[in-house]
């Protein structure tokens, strides 16, 4: 069943593209070329798109719940001064982030961390740069209650929604009874957010077998990404994230990331979440604190290998990349963004109905 929503913002949901096959490039008459093509074909199979969006048994998909979540996401009713919504920081055309080095606070200053993208969170478990959130449902009231963020107490949020006739009807349609509760606000927002899925990109067409979808430089960059540069050690799979936490040898200062929850584990000191790379060319600046301005600078950072210390990931070490190899890596990363000017479309998937 297709999920349909009304209103001017309905077109802001993204479409999950499904690849049913992976293609292997044609082999030449030379043995090394055949070996390279075989290895590339093996790597390509790891990036095939999933067939459906997963929803947890504790919060199954329903159309009414998803529509309620959409309304809540774009409505400033959930901020103290009614001047911010979730979409103020998670902007669809900016890769569902905000384009800032660090998130803006209510006083026009900066928060400590960069706004993370909401793309493809349905496939993630631990959330937040330091993994403080166990589920997508548990995230919502952290920014809503945050004094520097939306600055709205839970009780006031529930009062506003309960007294709004439109929301009262929407909650009654989405849940067994009309009561507006914190848990139901969380469930609705999380249901909508699981539908935020990256659009098809040139890379996906190449994975599906269209050899002309990306240029030769990007194909060489793909080989480097999975081989010499070791990017795929952390940025793996269809969403380009292993969902884990790593010290890449760059963070300094008092924020030690995942390590503050595990002070006895040296390996987690300065470990931050591996972000997905979908729409990455639209999501500058980079890193958890927005410290790196461009993709080229990101490649240079990894090429240097970061600070040598006990917590640094074993996959991080100097790479010795040539300038041409760096350019190829950037060319590949740019193929992970959908075509400019494409308007995000409605997702029409449910957990049980893959798109044909």
Please provide a written account of the structure.
This protein has a two-stranded antiparallel sheet. It is globular and about 60 Å long. The chain is built from ten helices and two strands. The protein has helices at residues 31-45, 63-74, 141-145, 154-163, 165-174, 182-193, 202-207, 216-226, 295-304, 323-334; strands spanning 245-246, 272-273. The two termini are 12 Å apart. It has 356 residues and is mostly helical. The model is unreliable at 1-31 and 343-356 (pLDDT under 50). The protein folds into two domains: 31-52 and 200-334, Cytochrome Bc1 Complex, Chain D, domain 2, CATH 1.10.760; 63-193, Cytochrome c-like domain (Cytochrome Bc1 Complex, Chain D, domain 2, Orthogonal Bundle).
Give a summary of the structure in a few sentences:
This protein is mainly alpha-helical and 356 residues long. It is 29% helix and 1% strand.
């Amino acid at each position: 069943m297709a999920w349909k929503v009304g209103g001017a913002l309905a077109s802001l949901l993204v479409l999950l593209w499904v690849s049913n096959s992976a293609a292997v490039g044609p082999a030449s008459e030379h043995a090394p070329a055949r070996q390279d093509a075989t290895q590339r074909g093996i790597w390509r199979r790891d990036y095939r798109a999933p067939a459906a969006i997963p929803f947890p048994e504790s919060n199954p998909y329903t159309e009414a719940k998803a529509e309620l979540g959409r309304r809540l996401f774009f409505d400033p009713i959930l901020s103290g001064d009614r001047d911010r919504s979730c979409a103020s920081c998670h902007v669809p055309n900016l890769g569902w982030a905000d384009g800032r080095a660090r998130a803006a606070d209510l006083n026009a200053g900066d928060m400590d961390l960069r706004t993370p993208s909401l793309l493809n969170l349905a496939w993630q478990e631990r959330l937040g740069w330091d993994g403080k959130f166990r589920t997508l449902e548990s995230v919502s009231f952290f920014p809503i209650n945050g004094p520097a963020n939306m600055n709205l107490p839970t009780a006031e949020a529930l009062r506003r929604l309960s007294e709004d006739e439109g929301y009262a009807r929407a909650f009654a349609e989405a849940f067994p009874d009309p009561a507006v509760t914190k848990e139901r606000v969380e469930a609705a927002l999380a249901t909508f957010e699981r539908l935020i899925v990256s659009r098809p990109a040139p890379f996906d067409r190449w994975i599906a077998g269209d050899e002309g979808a990306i240029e030769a430089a990007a194909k060489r960059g793909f080989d480097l990404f999975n081989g010499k540069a070791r990017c795929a050690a952390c940025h793996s799979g269809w969403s380009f994230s292993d969902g884990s936490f790593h010290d890449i040898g760059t963070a300094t200062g008092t924020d030690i990331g995942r390590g503050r929850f595990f002070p006895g584990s040296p390996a987690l000191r300065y470990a931050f979440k591996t972000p997905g790379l979908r729409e990455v060319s639209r999501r500058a600046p980079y890193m958890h604190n927005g410290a790196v301005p461009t993709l080229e600078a990101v490649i240079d950072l990894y090429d240097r290998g970061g600070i040598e210390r006990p917590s640094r990931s074993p996959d991080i070490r100097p790479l010795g990349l040539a300038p041409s190899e760096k350019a190829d890596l950037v060319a590949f990363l740019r193929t992970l963004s959908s075509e400019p000017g494409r308007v995000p479309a409605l997702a029409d998937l449910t957990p049980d109905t893959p798109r044909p």
